[in-house]
């Protein structure tokens, strides 16, 4: 996944996202109440997992998340569970990232996304990103006489692929590659 998403996931697991609860704790703001529902403190777990909206998103993805589960718990549980699960880590990262962006967008006056449009956007992102990963590998296999040094972006993609190899979905990415990447 791109570094900005990995950084977001890392900050979520460390509980250092600029949620209202975290800003309140640092005395930057004087209320930690979630502005979207007006009934809970806006912690990382609330925004990403347990708010009504987040709960609906995860249920639509096939995950039922216990009330006590933190983002870090969920991330490590999915990452270390060898049994097939409703979701792989790549999709978990993309969906969480979209939930956070949706929250930020609403705070900046943008229209809230629906559960379906948020999941669709996250799924599209993963498909396009994986097609970028698969492209250089497949082209190297089919054109053995030519070799081009990978660009920085490709190198990063390969590193990601190695880290999450066992959880990555097999790609048919080359067919989905288009001019938008
Ligand atoms: Zn809320």
Automatic annotation (TrEMBL):
Q: Which superkingdom does the taxonomy of this entry point to?
A: Eukaryota
Domain Reverse transcriptase zinc-binding, first and last residues per copy:
1-58
Pfam families per record: zf-RVT
What's the name of the protein?
Reverse transcriptase zinc-binding domain-containing protein
């Amino acid at each position: 996944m791109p570094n900005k998403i990995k950084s977001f996931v890392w900050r979520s697991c460390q509980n250092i996202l600029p949620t209202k609860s975290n800003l309140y704790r640092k005395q930057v703001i004087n209320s930690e109440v979630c502005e979207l529902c007006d009934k809970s403190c806006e912690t990382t777990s609330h925004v990403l997992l347990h708010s009504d909206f987040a709960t609906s998103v995860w249920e639509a993805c096939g995950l039922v998340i216990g009330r006590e589960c933190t983002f870090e718990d969920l991330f490590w549980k999915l990452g270390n569970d060898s049994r097939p699960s409703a979701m792989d880590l790549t999709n978990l990262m993309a969906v969480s990232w979209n939930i956070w962006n949706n929250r930020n967008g609403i705070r900046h006056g943008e229209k809230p996304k629906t559960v379906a449009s948020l999941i669709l956007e996250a799924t599209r992102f993963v498909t396009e990103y994986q097609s970028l990963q698969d492209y250089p590998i497949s082209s190297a296999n089919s054109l053995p006489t030519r070799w081009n040094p990978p660009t920085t972006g490709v190198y990063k993609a390969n590193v990601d692929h190695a880290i999450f190899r066992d959880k990555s979905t097999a790609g048919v990415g080359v067919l989905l590659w288009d001019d938008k990447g």
